[in-house]
């Protein structure tokens, strides 16, 4: 049991170190995937398009860097900026979404990449605290398992 806990502890430790060391690559990868999701955004509501809509609605953002990122997409030429960027769903017409100058007043202008990364970074202290707490419990479990093993081994020779 102590060996299994030690193995899990080492795996979590390595994952945390790798995540910290490669955090810039993770950001770059996220940004490129978000750009790809915008380029492939469509009306059929596949899971990538739904993810983009959810991010934009939840974080009140639009596009990767800002709302004008949608102008480079095929979806914009057909339907304009998606409705998930609208500040108010009632005050957002399709004509407004097709005109970037009108859309600027009706949609969120901030990009999602900065908001997602800043949200993740602000929650890192909570994640680190929880991880540290779990690691402490694992270490206590490892120590107690080793003590129990030692106790069982010592008492075997006394039993007759």
TrEMBL record:
Residue stretches spanning the membrane: 126-152
An annotated GO cellular component: plasma membrane
Keyword presence, Repressor: no
Keywords carried by this UniProt record: Glycoprotein, Membrane, Transmembrane, Transmembrane helix
Record-linked InterPro entries: Tetraspanin/Peripherin (IPR018499), Tetraspanin_EC2_sf (IPR008952), TSN6/7_LEL (IPR048232)
Main location: membrane
Annotated localization: Membrane
Presence of keyword Transmembrane: yes
Source domain of life: Eukaryota
Function, as annotated: May be involved in cell proliferation and cell motility.
Name this polypeptide is given: Tetraspanin-7
Native source species: Aramus guarauna
Gene: Tspan6
């Amino acid at each position: 049991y102590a060996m299994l806990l030690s193995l899990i502890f080492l795996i979590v430790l390595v994952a945390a170190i790798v995540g910290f060391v490669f955090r810039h690559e993770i950001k770059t990868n996220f940004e490129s995937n978000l750009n790809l999701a915008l380029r492939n955004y469509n009306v059929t509501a596949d899971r990538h398009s739904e993810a983009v809509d959810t991010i934009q609605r939840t974080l009140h953002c639009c596009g990767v860097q800002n709302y004008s990122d949608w102008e480079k997409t095929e979806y914009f030429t057909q339907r304009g900026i998606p409705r998930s960027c609208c500040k108010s769903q009632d005050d957002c017409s399709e004509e407004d979404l097709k005109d970037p100058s009108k859309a600027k007043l009706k949609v969120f202008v901030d990009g999602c990449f900065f908001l997602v990364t800043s949200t993740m970074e602000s929650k890192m202290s909570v994640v680190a605290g929880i991880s540290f707490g779990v690691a402490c419990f694992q270490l206590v479990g490892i120590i107690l398992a080793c003590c129990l093993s030692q106790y069982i081994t010592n008492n075997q020779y006394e039993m007759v």
